[in-house]
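User: I'm writing a short methods note and want a consistent example. For 2-dehydropantoate 2-reductase, I'll paste the sequence; you return only the structure tokens, no commentary, since I'll be parsing the reply automatically.
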Amino acid sequence: MKIRIGILGLGGVGGYFGGLLAKAYFKSDIIEVVFIARGETQKAIAENGLKIITDNSETTVYPALVSNNAKEIGELDYLICATKTYDIEESLLALRESIVAKTIILPLYNGVDAPERIQKLFPQNEVLQGCVYIVSMIMLPGTIKKIGFYEKLFFGSKTAAKTKLEVLQTIFEKAKIESYLVDTIEETVWEKFIFISALASATSYLDQNIGQILNNAESKRIYVALLHEIESVAKAKGLQLPDDIVDQTVNKLEKSPKEATSSMHRDLLAGRNIEAASLTQFVVNEGAKHGMQTPLYQEIASSLMTK
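Assistant:
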């Protein structure tokens, strides 16, 4: 029996990492990669494959199947989820027939609330924790562009069988995905969340890209202030983060492509739905739960939640 892997959400994250999997296991006798997409994306991939553009290459990959029909997709062994956070419930419930008892779900969303939300929908399934560091985006339906060299995937679980996790890690490694199976995955996910939450909130609120924030003293002050607020929330939750997490995060930003911005900022500019509930308001809500004040996050959330 083949190991069947579904990729839900063919945006910058799902499209890029799913594309690497599809490329590595094209016509494999062991692994089958299924793209779960609809509309123009499904049509483009079905007709022409998924195109991945990097700084120095252009590749077209083909999944075993591209579909949005759970009956056609069939049962999955692993499901990698990378839609927008506001689509979690609707997109996963549409796949109920494909998510069976054996299905292991790996969320790769921007927020940190996804595993809990997914576990409520599918209490019998193993839901891992995971995050990625990458600058990538949809150029056209069926076309993904990745900027820069940075591409790391982290995942783990406190409850899943080690053998199942190691199988997935081997699958990733053979697809040349730089992946890490992490014991302290909650802290790792929160380190990424601190980075992306502050960046998404700042870029969207200020309407500036990474370079503009770094080169404007007031903008950088706002970004760093957000980092301190979210750091206080994480520590109030009892997470064991590095003492210099703020400095580390600023350093990550300084190494990022200056012309890049957050996906939430791109969505805002395009007039699309944005992930402010999971990336900005969530920090305010978590702070309130643990008695931590987050006034700047509150101000930005109040602005973005009305967009």
